[in-house]
Specification:
Strand content of chain A: 15-25%
CATH superfamily of the largest domain in chain B: Thiolase/Chalcone synthase
Structural class of chain A: alpha/beta
CATH class of the largest domain in chain B: Alpha Beta
Oligomer: heterodimer
Number of domains of chain B: 2
CATH topology of the largest domain in chain A: Peroxisomal Thiolase, Chain A, domain 1
CATH topology of the largest domain in chain B: Peroxisomal Thiolase, Chain A, domain 1
InterPro entries (chain A): Beta-ketoacyl_synthase, Ketoacyl_synth_C, Ketoacyl_synth_N, Thiolase-like
Shape of chain A: globular
Number of helices of chain A: 12
Number of strands of chain A: 11
Number of domains of chain A: 2
Pfam family, one (chain A): Ketoacyl-synt_C
Family (chain A): Belongs to the thiolase-like superfamily. Beta-ketoacyl-ACP synthases family.
Radius of gyration of chain B: 19 Å
Order of helices and strands of chain A: EEHHHEHHEHEHEHEHEHEHHEE
CATH architecture of the largest domain in chain B: 3-Layer(aba) Sandwich
Number of helices of chain B: 13
CATH class of the largest domain in chain A: Alpha Beta
Largest sheet of chain A: 11 strands, mixed
Protein name (chain A): 3-oxoacyl-ACP synthase
Shape of chain B: globular
Keywords (chain A): Transferase
Strand content of chain B: 15-25%
Chain lengths: 387, 398
Amino acid sequence: MTTDTARRPLPTDDFTPTLTTLAVTSTAAVSPAGVGTTALAAALAVGGATGGEATEGLGDLGEETLPPRPVRAVPPLPFAELLGRKGLRNLDRTTRLALVACQMALDSYPGSIGPGAGVVMGTSSGSVRSSGEYSLRTLQAERPYLVNPSLFPNTVMNCAAGQVAIRHGLHGVNATVAGGALAGIQALRYARNATRQGQAERLLVAGAEELSAQTGWGWQRSGALRPDFPLGEGAAALVVEPEEVAHAEGRPVLARVLAAEVGFAPRGRLFATLTTCIGRALDRSGVAPADVRSVALGATGQVGADRLELRAVRGALGTAGMPPTVDVRQAVGETFSATVTLQLAALVDTWRQRGAHPGEAALITALGHDGSVGCLVVRGPATSPAH
Amino acid sequence: MITGLGAVSSAGIGADDFTAAIRDGRCTTGPITSFDAGGFPHRNAGEVPGFRPEEWLTRIDPDRWGRSSQFAASAARLATLDADLRPEDLARARTGSVMGTTSGESAAIEQLVGEWRSDGLKSLSPSLVQAVPAGRIAAAVNTELGIDGEALTLATACSASNYALGYAYDMVGQGEADYMFAGGADSVNRWAHAGFYRLGALAEEVCRPFDTERGGILTAEGGVALLVEPYERAIARGARIYAEVLGYGLNCDADHMVHPNAATIAGCIREAQRNAGVTPEQIDYICAHGTGTRTNDATEVAAVREVFGDAMPPISSIKSMIGHTMGAASGFGALICCRALYEGFLPPTANVERVDPELGRGVDPVPGKARQAAPQVVQNHGFAFGGNNAIVILGKAA
């Protein structure tokens, strides 16, 4: 920890709690690279999603068009086949993508998730297309209240998390964290606390982001992304549980989340705050900078933030030097609140394929336009999953 | 320990004004002014009248932040004053915020929708787009107070503030933070007004939980913040302690997006009480979710009866006065619970003329005005779309 007695005038400050390790025991992803984490990892290896500009997977955009800039859409998915037809018609794309990722994560989970499991969903503002279209309807309809009540839940940000719980009968804690770029880090941080407090035996931690004309034009008009950086979409889901539970029940541990640290800074102090945050995360994880064998960056292509992030990571790792980077956003486009979860899913797949070095760790960073910063420190499985 | 309270609501700005209105049983909902409600059959809501963010905010430029963020930051600023702290005291310690919301920056989204309708998506204003992310609600608190800890926005709809308070309690309790602001914020918006109307859940004039003549909810807005700090710190700095968080429970119905479930809510009550280390007999008062719909009343009372039997403590709804402030609702509930424990009263339910006999015997909604009492342990309910139940138990500071 960073000890600064001048900042710590009262006795409670001296206490820095021990972190509990979360084991990742299943991963899933659906992205412009296709269905599955292997497709995502393959796209990373070649530096981009195959299929590139095809947007037929988005389906009906209404009367709108996407902005004139590169986009990466999830290829057409047989949602009815993947999720069943029941109730599908009223679900928006954010919720569908989240449901597919969660379904896949549960399918590949070596065990039974159980009714005590919970859900932590990462988002930014839910489906902006859903809330925007609902609001537009109140202006366009003959009477402002002539909206479809069945679509109302889509306008609420916890829709995806609620639907996942309904579909899989998950009665544990059900949380939605609205963190945008930070969402995946916040979700794992929240999940760690929830397991520690006994609010859920295990949790689905997911993130979902849909590409729509509404969000597309939002990015276009905000100027936050470089004009040549593609807009993407996707969802990823992980099953996490206390490491000792996974061991006791004989489930292979795919990755271990050691630290999920966050901080906040006004624009001028972002660099220092992110550097401190990474240093604290490594310190609390007991991971030496030299053990960090890969870094997943979160701000590539973001105006003003990408260089700052790279400098902060370099600064925090110091003489250990900069390891190879993993960057799903370069491969599948801006996936905002799904990014960190996709990064972790891709990383786990890379480890699964090539085998993680003993003690190998990865650093996943993120920073938001509002001043939020955060990072994960993740270690590979203790032993090779092949054993 | 909860040592600072801040409120921005239809019932006043600042915890003192808010508490005075609630104690008096004053109904502060009224005709909608923030959008043209002329085409709606039901036109009342709980708006914050004449809110001038520049009166309360010193660092945040209101032009760059949405209405919900302004509410949240103002409430946190007020809670800081109430806790007799200076922002620099907070900035020197490890201070963060966790804020709940249902619709985030819905007012900004509706302004953008107006631009979309007039001139197409290509005409969206960059500054409005930048104001949309819901995570800015907690970010606004950190920015306004210059604090560098966690800034977490929980979007668990209408129970989100209770989620936030539970999380703040854990972070402070574990030593992850020295101070945490917990609360929530939401803004009145046309789309939610339309959605609730179409669900048949919107009251025509006033909100009357527990009353035979109840007609539903009134949408409302506001921001609320509670400052949480550890006992040792509160004692060491001689803070006024309103109440102690004893524990909380969270669970999920997992059966329907909009209909509550009595069995799961009963489970949530039991979990909260177990977590707090209290038994049903110790609960002196329940601050109900109490939205004012028939479904909520029936479900909530059934759940309470399942846990308490016929010995139900008084249960009232402040939504009868301020309407349903969505993501801020259980935060306002927690705030009034703190004041009830500290000052010794039970918050009332307004607009109750005849308690619905279908709710069964023993329902005491504290009708009219606040009742003098000396509650020691109280229970604050929050339920939400998606079946997100969250209950916090608060106790009088020892």
